[in-house]
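REVIEWER CHECKLIST
Item 1: Sequence provided? yes
Item 2: Single chain? yes
Item 3: Sequence as submitted:
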Amino acid sequence: MKVKILRQKNPFSESYWEAFDADVTEGMSIAGLLDSINYNDDIVNDKGEKTARIGWECSCLQGICGACAMVINGTPALACETFAGNLKGDEITIRPLSKFPVIHDLLVDRSIIQENLRKTDVYIEEYKPDSSKSKSKKEKEYLHQYSAAKCLKCGLCLEVCPNYAGGENFYGALFANDCYLVASRNKEKAGEIGKMYKEHFGRGCSKALSCMDVCPMKIETTASMAKMNRQP
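Item 4: Structure as written out by the authors:
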């Protein structure tokens, strides 16, 4: 199978497409496919020319770290959870996420995600629940708290978001989920976090909801939005 990869040697060089002929076995993930291309000491492209190993990032290879986020056949996804056999056509195209600076090939710098959380102080710090809530209300809240806490910070939601353009003012769906998580777990910070939510999410979201379509953890961001909109 033909595999086309958008490559870039370093943050200051021009990007270029390079193609490879790869044997795709049954049940092979895109992560496995990249590993198979990188396996030999001498790597050649589809023209028979020697080339460098493909740069990409991974950790768990089980869909729980988010490191292998990239764009596969035009769809943002995790390489470890995308299987070549499920893709249409006889060619696979892979490129890095476009909303982040490229470090090397498919490896991008997503530090802006944590930087924005740091700037806005969206951290629980200390668990201080709202004692005025009944036990039943708290138990209902736990379900969505658990869901929101599963965010991988992979950046897939930002890749498809029509409103996100680098994170200078609008911080995207993952910010809304983290705001909800902090506000619901620390009542003393809820008011402050509510203001941050309105400033860096609530006023910029056009409700396209494409973020929920690509989220590997299936987080219901609309629920986080609804709960944050009720903040005073």
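Item 5: Key structural point noted by reviewer: The domain at 2-108 is CATH 3.10.20.30 (Ubiquitin-like (UB roll)).
Item 6: Recommendation: ____
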